[in-house]
């Protein structure tokens, strides 16, 4: 390693705030378990996954019958495992390169999935493209490795309910991987008749998060991978990919991708410069192709839409 890497090795590591990481994890476990309990109740009763007004009443009733939360653990533990694997992939890549980074911070939130996800803080400079690539690609691949088996398990516990996927307040799209896996587990069953078990629903969320993170834009994981290869061309390429994302939203009629593209363009697509002229080696190029394949099978042109738009 060069002098810059040696300087990074010599820097003392920051101390972890264990209490904060633990508190955020527990709060996120509660919020995601509450969502999971509602999903489980709807699944058992063959009701659509989301009816917003009824769901609000259910969440308020949890204070009177908290034991119901046990039924939400399959969803919450599956989702948190996928998110944790993703963030620990980044964390251990930082540890491998002796770059100071925090443990994962989870973000509890009153959303449809009970969280805004998780992140780690990298508290030291990254001096080489290879380090940047390893840190960027490690998270999505680690999360995807954990996602695959739980997707299979979730589909095994899913069931056929005629027309169920087209009912309720929200209708969910199927990324390519889920579509292919469903065809293997439920041959001949129409997508509209497949009711995903909460574990499979958590895997669906993991696929969406993976696709979003792997977009080759800005400082997303995919943006880090892009910078590792493109260097100073990163900003222009990020602009092109952001506009492409907006075009996908326009073509398929999903406002979400348009808003994400506008957010990326508005907040800026710059990346902290890394002055490293060494090319990326063949092994990392193959990993980049794996990451591109993961993006392709995880991306959904219309992840979710309301029934009022039908």
Based on CA atoms alone, the radius of gyration comes out at 21 Å
Total of DSSP H or I helical runs spanning 4+ residues: 11
Outline the low-pLDDT stretches: 1-12
Oligomer: single chain
Find the structural class using helix and strand composition. mainly alpha
Say how many strands there are.
6
- Largest sheet, order of strands side by side? 1-2
Helix proportion? 55-70%
Query: Main sheet, how many strands, which sense, barrel?
Result: 2 strands, antiparallel
Return the average pLDDT rounded to an integer: 90
Residues in β-strands, percent: 5-15%
Give the SSE string.
HHHHEEHEEHEHHHHHE
Indicate the overall shape. Answer: globular
How far from one another are the termini?
58 Å
How are the elements arranged and paired?
Layout: H1 3-10, H2 18-44, H3 52-61, H4 73-96, E1 105-108, E2 115-119, H5 129-156, E3 159-160, E4 170-172, H6 176-185, E5 194-195, H7 198-214, H8 221-230, H9 234-252, H10 255-267, H11 282-298, E6 304-306
Helix pairs in contact: 2-4, 4-5, 4-7, 5-6, 5-7, 5-8, 5-11, 7-11, 9-10
Q: Can you describe this structure?
A:
The chain has 310 residues and is mostly helical. The chain is built from eleven helices and six strands. The chain has helices at 3-10, 18-44, 52-61, 73-96, 129-156, 176-185, 198-214, 221-230, 234-252, 255-267, 282-298; strands at residues 105-108, 115-119, 159-160, 170-172, 194-195, 304-306. The strands form three sheets. Strands 1-2 form a two-stranded antiparallel sheet. α4 packs parallel to α7 and α5 (129-156) runs parallel beside α6. The termini are far apart. Mean pLDDT is 90; it is low at 1-12.
